[in-house]
């Protein structure tokens, strides 16, 4: 099992969460909520209003999201879903645990107690330069105050 941190449309209550609970795509177990230890710019960009975490450490906000434990099948699905490695790149980041629900062995307990876990995160280093000038968010909600409605793949 691998740990993945999601900050956008794959979170609970968001348009693509259905994929996280579709066992035909693999297993994803909610572990808790967290936020990036380093600051990153989280922008909503493109004609489909997609949330992107730009891989520019030290700029932006501590981005909030959810921590999942996923099997290899779900990780392969997420790589494909996220257009990895072209659109997003899967990298390891330090995530501060805000609220832990994960039940597991000593490693899980230690991670929760220490307050920081390593997770795979889909961020991007391949983006138009003007995205750096977009508003930065610390959290993503497809129906947030930003007024930028996410366009589902089926509707594109």
From TrEMBL:
Residues 4-105 form the Gamma-glutamylcyclotransferase AIG2-like domain. InterPro entries: AIG2-like_dom, GGACT, GGCT-like, GGCT-like_sf. This is Gamma-glutamylaminecyclotransferase. The active site is at 82 (proton acceptor). It catalyses: epsilon-(gamma-L-glutamyl)-L-lysine = 5-oxo-L-proline + L-lysine. Belongs to the gamma-glutamylcyclotransferase family. Keywords: Lyase, Transferase. Catalyzes the formation of 5-oxo-L-proline from L-gamma-glutamyl-L-epsilon-lysine. It holds the Pfam family GGACT. The keyword Secreted does not apply. GO terms for molecular function: gamma-glutamylaminecyclotransferase activity; transferase activity. GO terms for cellular component: cytosol. Its EC number is 4.3.2.8. One of its GO terms (biological process) is modified amino acid catabolic process. The keyword Lyase applies. Gene3D superfamilies: Gamma-glutamyl cyclotransferase-like. PANTHER family: GAMMA-GLUTAMYLAMINECYCLOTRANSFERASE, TROPONIN C-AKIN-1 PROTEIN.
């Amino acid at each position: 099992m691998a740990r993945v941190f999601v900050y956008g449309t794959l979170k609970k209550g968001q348009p693509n969460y259905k994929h996280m609970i579709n066992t035909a795509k693999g297993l994803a177990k909610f572990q808790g909520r967290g936020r990036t230890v380093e600051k990153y710019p989280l922008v909503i960009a493109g004609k489909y209003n997609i949330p992107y975490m730009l891989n520019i450490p030290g700029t932006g906000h501590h981005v909030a999201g959810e921590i999942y434990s996923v099997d290899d099948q779900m990780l392969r699905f997420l790589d494909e879903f996220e257009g990895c490695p072209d659109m997003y790149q899967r990298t390891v980041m330090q995530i501060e645990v805000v609220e832990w629900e994960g039940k597991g062995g000593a490693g899980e307990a230690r991670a929760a107690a220490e307050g920081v876990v390593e997770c795979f995160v889909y961020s991007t280093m391949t983006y138009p330069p003007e995205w750096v000038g977009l508003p930065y968010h610390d959290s993503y909600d497809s129906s947030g105050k930003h007024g930028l409605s996410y366009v589902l793949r089926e509707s594109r």
